[in-house]
């Protein structure tokens, strides 16, 4: 917002901090419990940040909607209405994400199992911080607005007394009544006036059902074609020497099967000819 009072920069920053706290809490808990930490887990914070910011937007939007419906109500009733509107959506998204990643812990790959365990636990903490920490931040930000304080310095902002001689930058940053009036967001108007009526048309609904049926059928067919495993060539860049190396290996040596190695774990007298002959005989028997 352009208003020096209604600007919510710090509120957005706290939403990102909430996701960061969820990552720190989950990683700290699992490391304390001795869960192995693998390099693939380092990508988990980006997933948590995406979901955390999405939950933040849902909470802020519900809070703003409650302000339009109950302008003179107290903070408790507004926060209760905010949770009533946002908590269901946040809970459903969290449950689906946690379920998806905890199912991934059943895999036989230890690295994937650790990644899914760390990420799923982080989603749980992200949900907890969203409905506790971020809800409190919304209330504190509301009290700052009620106190007519600046969004950056939190210092009291003077009321406009017709100081037309001041510069535009001064009016925009230091006077509370210079802001534009609050109105409905253009995106909300688009979905309410155009997007919603378009998809509630009878023929459009029939088309959507047909498209979803085709998508569902294609998804089921794709699931039946998935095979567990990985092609090592996909782990290298397109111009890497590893790709032609694996191509030649599969072309010329794949018929011979995997290489078998014999490892002697005990200390033996290799200087003794009898011992060397015994090792040779053992290798020939394995062949």
UniProtKB/TrEMBL annotation:
Metal-binding among keywords: no
Predominant cellular place of this UniProt entry's protein: membrane
Domain (SSD): residue spans on this chain: 1-140
Location of the protein in the cell: Membrane
Membrane-traversing stretches: 9-31, 37-61, 82-109, 115-140, 203-222
Family to which this protein belongs: Belongs to the patched family.
Name the record gives this protein: PTHD3 protein
Species of origin: Nycticryphes semicollaris
